[in-house]
Amino acid sequence: MRKVLMVTSEASPFAKTGGLADVSGSLPGALNKEGVDTRVILPKYGTIPVEWKGRIFHKQAITVKVGWKNQYCGIEQAEYNGVIWYFIDNEYYFKREGLYGYFDEAERFAFFCRAVLEAIPWLDFLPDILHCHDWQTGMVPVLLEAQYRRLDPYRDIATLFTIHNLRYQGEFPIPVFRDLFGLGEEYFTPDKLEFYGNASFLKGGLVYSHILTTVSRTYAEEIRYPFYGERLDGLLRARGDSLHGIVNGIDDAEYDPETDPCLVRNYNTDTLEAKSENKIALQKELGMPVNGEIPIIGLVSRLVDQKGLDLVACVLDEILESDIQLYVLGTGDPKYENLFRQAVSRHPGKISANIRFDNALAHRIYASVDLFLMPSLFEPCGLGQLISLRYGTLPIVRETGGLKDTVRSYNEKTGEGNGFSFTNYNAHDMLYTIRRALHLYSDKAIWTKLQRKAMAGDYSWRHSAREYAQLYRSLKGR
Q: Domains in the chain, start-ordered, CATH in brackets?
């Protein structure tokens, strides 16, 4: 049995800012079912909910060297959903409000990367593979090769690195890296850590890991080209034989319209009429005009340019001229937050702008609206479209990354498809696709068939876990 230690900066239900936490929280359980002994290690943040902190117990205290400092490191452990979770405890680095965005990010995650390696002898679990996720863990493979490889118990550990979003790279000045990690000048060359005059955590993971993955097949191809490659396309082309795209799944127990406790009434493919009850209840909850027949478009997202919101800004008034309602939930760039707030005053009764994070409301929007808008500039995988499909809410997406891999545009001639899509990054192409979807909404027979087809898809981790398990087996003997 392969033994895998996942290294991540966040994981549900302990700490979450985005899709990385959903992946790190759900994939390990699916891998265990595939016969891979998978455990997870992450920082013990001060924001971990109290109910989970009570289930975490202290295992060992060690000292971790960060530059010239010798820092306390607590190794703690919990069990959740049949998975063993390890936590790296240091209140100076991690007992803060929020997970990221501090002046000392390089030092915080330098500590975490080294602490992961220093903790291994104390875990009662010797991994065959370290599976690292995103830039915050990118120096683990580097340190393993540079400073630990010749030591027991590290000699045979292989590494796999997953890119969740290439835009975030952990880039800092070379002197900072040199001081924090104790690496010589030979590591700061263009073929190693040097990156346009600085050094990069992410590049370290890409150069030093045995296998690379990213979270959809299309994104794995896109990032080999300059537009999507974030200045790393040359490296990714050079490592093309080691780069694999495996589409994310979702936790199909959490996102289940038949059992979801957030809904007013649960439903399945045989009781789709109950979806309209949720729709009416949501209209009342958000103070919108109650009309079970009007089509509602949902948008649950970080409000940032990556999500294609400049396209929405271009044609928002034209979208709202149609006989629809638009429900927005999310936070992000103030210019997009204000875009939706101001639209409420111009189009009263047409748009509900909920500028906050609210997981229960997100569930109700996914389940209650008719269409889900996701016109991303780029999208490594995307989870929103998978969740909406699970609830029989048809997605409107741009054909990029995981959106292209998971949403098939409806074909009137063949009846194939599970949503709507457009190719060019163009506001009026998006508007045309929205109007096409709204036209089809008026044909209830076609619409219901599309909803049932969407709900019948398998969006779980089962298939993806098998692909990861196969990659782990290919690393045997390293």
A: 3-249+462-474 (3.40.50.2000), 274-456 (3.40.50.2000)
**Amino acid 477: pLDDT:** 52
Q: What is the mean pLDDT of residues 157-166?
A: 98
Question: Buried b / exposed e across 268-301, counting CB within 10 Å, b at 16+?
Answer: eeeebebbeebbebbbeebebeeeeebbbbbbbb
- Under 8 Å between Cβ of 300 and 384: yes
> What residues have CB less than 8 Å from 245, skipping those under 6 apart?
213, 214, 215, 216, 217, 218, 219, 220, 221
Handedness of CA 190, 191, 192, 193 (dihedral sign): positive
If we measure between CA atoms, which residue out of 114, 219, 206 comes closest to residue 165? 219
In Å, how far are 190, 287, 338, 351 from 328, measured between CA atoms?
Answer: 43, 14, 12, 8
Report the b/e string of 53-64 with b at 16+ CB within 10 A: eeebeebeeeeb
Distance separating alpha carbons of residues 230 and 223, to the nearest angstrom: 8
- Count of beta carbons in the 10 Å neighbourhood of residue 242: 15
Asked whether the whole model's pTM tops 0.70, one would answer yes
Report which DSSP code applies to 146: I
The contacts of residue 359 (CB under 8 Å, 6+ apart) are none
What tens digit of pLDDT does each residue of 236-251 get? Answer: 999 999 999 999 999 9
**Sheet with strand 394-398: strands edge to edge:** 351-354, 325-329, 296-300, 371-374, 394-398, 420-422
Q: pLDDT (tens digit, 9 = 90+) per residue, 284-326?
A: 999 999 999 999 999 999 999 999 999 999 999 999 999 999 9
DSSP state, residue 114: H
Q: What is the mean pLDDT of the chain?
A: 96
Express each pLDDT in 128-148 by its tens digit.
999 999 999 999 999 999 999
Got the DSSP string for 297-350?
A: EEEES-BSGGGTHHHHHHHHHHHHHSS-EEEEE--B-HHHHHHHHHHHHHSTTT
**Looking at beta carbons, which pairs linking 239-244 to residues 24 or more positions away fall under 8 Å?**
239/206, 239/212, 242/210, 242/211, 242/212, 243/212, 243/213, 243/214, 244/211, 244/212, 244/213, 244/214, 244/220, 244/467, 244/471
State which amino acid sits at residue 233: D
Task: Output the six-digit token pair for 77.
Answer: 């452990």
User: In the structure encoding, which two tokens stand for residue 186, read together?
Assistant: 């030979």
Q: Would you call 422 helix, strand, or coil by DSSP?
A: strand
